[in-house]
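quick one, two chains, predict together pls
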Amino acid sequence: MTAAYDVVAIGNAIVDVIAPATEAFLAGEGLQKGSMTLIDEARAASLYDGMAAGVEASGGSAGNTIAGIASLGGRAAYLGKVASDQLGEVFAHDLRAQGVAFDTPYLDCGPATGRCLINVTPDGQRTMATFLGAANQLTEEDVDPAVIQASAIVYMEGYLFDPAPARKAFARADEIAKRAGRRIAITLSDVFVVERWRDDLLAFMDGSVDVVFANENELMALFRTDDFDSACERLRPMVEIAAVTRGEQGSVILNRGETHRVEAFPVQRVLDTTGAGDQYAAGFLFGLARGLPLQTCGRLGSMAAAEVIGHYGPRPQTPLKDLARSQGLLA
Amino acid sequence: MTAAYDVVAIGNAIVDVIAPATEAFLAGEGLQKGSMTLIDEARAASLYDGMAAGVEASGGSAGNTIAGIASLGGRAAYLGKVASDQLGEVFAHDLRAQGVAFDTPYLDCGPATGRCLINVTPDGQRTMATFLGAANQLTEEDVDPAVIQASAIVYMEGYLFDPAPARKAFARADEIAKRAGRRIAITLSDVFVVERWRDDLLAFMDGSVDVVFANENELMALFRTDDFDSACERLRPMVEIAAVTRGEQGSVILNRGETHRVEAFPVQRVLDTTGAGDQYAAGFLFGLARGLPLQTCGRLGSMAAAEVIGHYGPRPQTPLKDLARSQGLLA
């Protein structure tokens, strides 16, 4: 069956609150720079009290990725849970305005729409504290079989390993995708996710996953090693394709016996690295769904990542399709 | 009595939703480029449906101005009405995080926090459609006499002439300020506000206002003339000080017999002009409250306006105090 969607993404549906911060503020709040910490509603309120004035923008790792795929001209769908409140309305609007199909029912009686409090230090690094809220309530009933069956690639966040009901949604989507002959892709998301769920992630990757995204720290944490190359060789036989990002050093793509190296795109000024990994995945997955060579997939990823770190906010502000054309990456 | 606050601002408390748009979209929605239109909740919902993905940021003209004054190191307070909902929480947080005293009680049973849907065309111009919501419910009971008495300058938006209860709040603040010997400043806000409330504005200016802010279009609309100089001469005897902005041509300050001309600050790239007038008022009012020469007040205004048009969002992203010091405008 031809796929109606290039990619369906399943993720924690989150609105970002982005504000500048000092290193001292992070230390005082006990936040480790560059990490993502899960917090409850009370902690979210007290942390927000201490933060500087900010801006709000729809986020969530897989939500950012799917917005990027749509920005490249991809046909895209999203599954994730928001509440029927103002931030939920914003989240849904921003996906639909980008052309992403989003029909997960809103949560009516329960926690508010999830929020990620992002403190951006002057070096452009982001430190995230996430109150999952309604995102925590994604269940297997929210997994629409028709959407999964209609998507060439089903993409899931490692972050989804945290909420227990979402794990079941994850498993259900995997089962439907397998039966429909669709590819499964995941991102490891975060070093702390890897630490929390190492064995589950490894088992899932070995048994089910076709495409994995990781940055070098996540990959080395997964195999408890300091040696990048040996971590790559342990990952290689587990999946069909692995794309490992290395910041300014670009990315490495493993595909069975082959290894492709892709350079990072030049960036005038790094303002906020939020969403860089998400956009790399967007470019790569779009290329993969369209059957482009892996080197081109990687370059589309690098290009999309470069767009997003040049401004505040985790989603592209320039249509990625236009950028890709101007770079000769798309016809 | 020494003033505890340099400025208290009274305004429509609004959260901005900012998205890129084409000229064709504005035409299709019947919106006149550069204007501010009042809309109801149903129209806000349908317009939002058609808008591109955006970002949310606390706004409201006087709210932006008071945030700018705090960013300059000024002691600042704000009176305005938000609902006890997520956007209201964001609005209050952003003011307090900036150091602005904000204690107007939240609206509990009534419309949601007000929203301004801002479509930014590629030329950087913003076209605004405002659903006032809770902002519409500011009443004279919300005017805290202690705050008015403690402020060197009481600053009010022309936009406040629209909601009937706010008009009474306006009058009450004026009465308290007069008794305490405080200065009254207003901005004309918008050409359409001038058209709707010309006689009321003229009567209020003539009887009560010490300092008025206007752009050249608003000023010429006020006196129904195409001649800038004659409009200036009609305004001059009505108020102690008038600051009239002219975009790239800078501003003109009228002070009884004196006229000061101030150049615009150079801007690398105009991205979004939302908040330019608000920040001009911020710089000017801060200088005035601190007793600086009018030429310096104007330059502080030009500097603050230049900061805000170089990025999306209506409030400064760089501390204005640091900018002013680097320009030699503050010690």
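Residues 85 and 112 of chain B are 7 Å apart (CA to CA).
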